[in-house]
Design goal:
single chain; about 110 residues; alpha+beta; 5-stranded mixed beta sheet; 5 strands
């Protein structure tokens, strides 16, 4: 398995596990939790969408992109963080971009800048 395939596999594996765990707790009525994988564009989403009390709900829990063989974490509202899970799976810090931080801030972190 090459690097890109491994990154795809791990991101899908982790998000699928998050979704499995979250599905054990009931959602609000009218709210659906969606897991969406687009390998062609290397975009991976886990989000809630729907309506409750006449309000539209659109909440991204995790949004990950793979670009230039690096994993860009664009959004992450999980407790431990998907970066932690990726590190546990053996992905080096140089392959993980915490893209929810500004580029000028990333240089002070142990992860890839871009």
């Amino acid at each position: 398995m090459d690097k890109l395939e491994k990154h795809r596999f791990l991101v899908k594996k982790i998000l699928t596990e998050y979704d499995r765990i979250a599905s054990q707790t009931p959602n609000l009525e009218g709210i659906d939790t969606i897991l969406s994988f687009d390998e062609e564009r290397d975009q991976y989403l886990w989000f809630d969408i729907g309506w409750t009390s006449r309000k539209r709900v659109r909440a991204i829990s995790v949004y990950v992109r793979i670009k230039n063989e690096k994993i860009y974490i664009e959004e992450d509202w999980t407790e431990e963080g998907i970066a932690t899970e990726l590190l546990r799976e053996g992905v080096p810090k140089e392959d993980i971009v915490l893209a929810f931080h500004a580029p000028e801030t990333r240089k002070f972190m142990d992860f890839a800048i871009a």
